[in-house]
Amino acid sequence: MPATFPTSYPAPVATRPRPRLRGVAPSPAIGRDGTSSRTARAALAHHLGHADPLAGVDRTVPERTWERVGTADGAELWLITWPPDSGTGWHDHGSASGAFVVLEGALTEHVWTGVATATTLPPHLVREFGSSHVHDVVNTGTGTAVSLHAYAPSLAAMTRYEVVRGRLQVTSVEQRGELW
């Protein structure tokens, strides 16, 4: 389902041009979570219209970093910096649906739907997903990538998985405040 985002934004906070979000790559299983993923998508557009998330990014960090950068339109926003070869491992977002956009570089998203499929996400393409979405996101490029993520409702838990004999197996459940 295509999305429409503003093609112009309010006066910039910084001099860097605003990214223009190109569309939506929905999860194959958004289902009843569509409202929450649309809330997350709207929060991305709102945040990008009012802030320059790339202004303070340290592109020399040796490992993946994440920072909560606020809330907008009922969603929680996180900025993630991805050095080459960094990734998340298989996980879900608890009861939260969401959306994310690559701001610099490219990320490869592996999605679990009974089998693993991979899609490379270029800059400015919004990726929506529902609360049942299980994925592994990796920077397979040679440079640092940066992405902005929105979760609705707020991210409270994440379940970690590993693939064992062709099936996902839960390895842990992280609660907000433990590691992030």
Automatic annotation (TrEMBL):
Gene3D superfamilies: Jelly Rolls. The keyword Iron applies. The keyword Membrane does not apply. Residues 1-36 are annotated as: Disordered. Keywords: Dioxygenase, Iron, Metal-binding, Oxidoreductase. One of its GO terms (molecular function) is dioxygenase activity. InterPro entries: CDO_1, RmlC-like_jellyroll, RmlC_Cupin_sf. It holds the Pfam family CDO_I. Belongs to the cysteine dioxygenase family. This is Cysteine dioxygenase family protein. It comes from Nocardioides zeicaulis.
